[in-house]
Amino acid sequence: MAPRSSIDITFDRASQNAKMYRLWSDPGKPYARNLIANLSELPPYGSWSLGKDDWKDDHVKGKENCGRLYHGELSWYPVPGGEVVPLPLHVAVKWMRGERMVNQLRHEAEMYMGPLHRLQGQVVPIFYGFFTGKIEGVHIGCIVLEWCPGNEWMTFGKPDQKELADRWEAVQLLHRAGVKHGQLYKRRDSLRLWEGRHFLRARDGKLRIVDFQQARKHDCAGSMRPHEDLNIHLDHKCRELCFAEIHLRRAIEGGPDFKTPWLPY
Ligand SMILES: Nc1ncnc2c1ncn2[C@@H]1O[C@H](COP(=O)(O)OP(=O)(O)O)[C@@H](O)[C@H]1O
Ligand SMILES: [Mg+2]
Ligand SMILES: [Zn+2]
């Protein structure tokens, strides 16, 4: 049997309806430890749906191909000689039901383990594992990530020069690692609140880019030099890096009240 690791996930541990599920890593892809996670709901309830907004209360039953983001505390079963980690370790758990979304999570996990490996804990969250299982006939999958307390992006205002500089720096590192995110900037002529949802702040206050479900490996056409002519580089390949740079440049040239329109959605 190909080796696997497990995660034991408990929902609502303190309540009467506590539920525990065991999920597994992909065959032949074990992690160093078998994990234990205690999860709790994030308020406000509706804001943390993943994919469609059709989540029903049950973790397993309900519409397929959607999910929830949970906050959790992570620990693990002891391993001989294993290190002692200061607890609790706060994590985000992306929990999905339905085969299509589970496969998207697998893709995201491959990004974290592959090209993003060295950026974990710097520009992207630390990745603790990807686990799946079939529960009551339903495909379930989850990804466990470093918790970013600065995830209240609905309350972020227009990003200032410093924020845009941090975002530009982070996007550059992503592209240098050969990854295009695919959901960071929509337009070159305006900034949107919605874009902030993938630029979060970790506990150390540093930026973390999240959500690699639609990310692609990518040979960066933009290189690491500042673009001489931004229009030349607006090709498919490096639009993302280019937009990050355009927004920063506008903020630098326009001063504290730079004119890029701000769209609160
Ligand atoms: N590691 C994390 N820590 C805290 N909040 C997170 C974390 N990852 C994602 N989130 C929050 O959950 C939202 C949805 O997660 P995301 O990975 O973008 O999934 P999707 O786009 O599929 O809904 C993010 O916009 C962010 O607000
Ligand atoms: Mg997202
Ligand atoms: Zn690029």
UniProtKB/TrEMBL annotation:
Q: Which InterPro entries match?
A: Kinase-like_dom_sf
Q: What is this protein called?
A: Protein kinase domain-containing protein
Species of provenance: Trametes cubensis
Traced from the root, the source organism's taxonomic lineage reads: Eukaryota, Fungi, Dikarya, Basidiomycota, Agaricomycotina
